[in-house]
Amino acid sequence: MAKRLMLLILVSIIIIPLVGCESPGHSYRPDENTLYVGSVQTSFPSAYMPWLSREGIAPTIAGMLYDSLFVYDEDSGNYLPAIGREWYYVDEDGEPILTEDGSIDYARLEEIYGDPEQEFLAVKVIIHDTITWSDGEPLTVEDIYYSFDIATNNQLSNHAGALAWTSDLRHKYTNGVLTQQGLFTYDHGAARQGYEIPMEDKDTVIYLHVNKVLGSVTPLFTSVLILPEHVWKPVVTRESQLNSTSPNEEILYHYSHPVGSGRWVLDAEESGSQQIILHRRKDYHRTKEDGSPLIGIDTIKYVLYQEINVAIYALLKGHIDVLSSSVSSNYLRLFENEDDLFVSNAPGQFTQTLVFNLNPVSSERNPMRDLLQNRDFRKAMALAINQEELIARVLDGAGLPASAGLMSASLEEFYNPAADSLPADYSTRIEEANAILDSIVPEKDGDGYRLLGDQRISFQILGSPGEQDVISFLQIQLQKIGIEVKYAAKGTQPESTYLYTSRFDMTLHGVTFSLSNVDIMYPAHFQTLGRTSNYGRLVNEELNNGIHEMRFTLDLNTKYDLIKRIQPMIAEEYYKVPLYTPNVISVARTDRFEGFRVVEGATVMNTESLENLRKTKGGR
After folding, report:
1. The pTM is what?
2. Which of 127, 175, 428, 494 could be cross-linked to 490 through a Cys-Cys bond (beta carbons 3.0 to 4.6 Å apart)?
3. How far apart are CA 194 and CA 398, in angstroms?
């Protein structure tokens, strides 16, 4: 009944304010070769330098204007070509360490680099020789060198994220001075290092020295969007840094007039605070197997909407072709009987968790938070959380239960079911949880809530306005064991305001772990203290040792086994307790374009869709 009432309210909100807005015979999508995309934001960015902003639509647009070296394919575990054409680990002579079928020879890799005296892995990257920047200048490995080099030099980049991306690259600066070189091209010391690069390959070959971690190449290959040296090197100085909060006129111009190597180019003159227009690059170096363009659409026009209901109305009435953002499961019934709609209900990749502040800094400790240091207390709270009910009530069934080891069960090579050791029967769980708490805090008040001394045990959960629903149901579930929780608004900068400073009891936090990111994400979430995702400041030496061993083994099978071994350790801490893995729900019209694809963890506005879209026969 509540969901039906919510649906009626949503329909009213969408329709009533806009009735009568249509003009008969008027085309809201006048250009038949343009894909009109609705984007729900407070405003569109005016700067498109890819390292400048990670909020809103900015990283999406940056990823369309710029390319990384490779794209990681979770299904195959391979790095697919982008700027890079191929890569491999090499031996001391620069020869590829490959098996006969062309895959990485991990046995030989361990044989060569397993010696503790070997301090790094050597990697050779070969890029395509036909790439140009959007201003026509050729892209060479000197652009790769510049991008990685400035990423490691915070005096010029002023970008903490870039330091994280390159943390496993053995190329280091101290106070703006290069103290260790780990990048080598024809023009940057390759011959001195013993890497012979023929003159004809000088623009396409680069060698990297990375830490002896199999995942060390992942952020270098996939997170760093490559910058044009000829654009940025002349204007970036210690006084005018790349990531500048007060850019001078020259840098500000380059922020708003990006020169990239991606599939799209910005129409800077027509784009602004209300719309962003991208044109397909006809000279993009990658094509389909038959030589035709990867993308058949000429232009994408992003249209700003500040309210999701208005954006949905615009879609239903044909003002736009697709929404770029996901929508709540509340809207699924609204779309059921609509013609010309493609609804994507894609499996999600991130897990929503409840994070406990179990080890706050001394100045933020109090008797209530001291309870969270008790692992059994946290276990009792984990037992009381009913994922199936949250999925049914909060997500309308559009999601899946998540493993306590926080690894998706769909990743069969890495998922360890032993991490999910709590009883399946919810009544049994509640009984066990209450038994645990009766031994720790047995006294209750007249409303059935447990007491610490004469004070009701009560915690605040940081969340966004859109997360109040899940917190409301957590209130109901945790009340069953006598624990009170309340919603607390996390604001616009929760990390600096609350999370990094230990000024919270609990928080909601989405996490994603896979083979491609565990080398970085496991330490960030469970090991490193400070400005990391280890918000509750967990310290567990056994877990730390397991993560360290997993990171530095060069045997892939051993790495898989260690990832499995780590998951029960994570689960048994009851530190980041899973709530659910939500589906990604998105929607597009099919009256003008067809070929939209459902991609795990993505909205319908994804790369596969763009590569497959074609005009609908008879479309308008």
Report:
1. 0.88
2. 494
3. 56
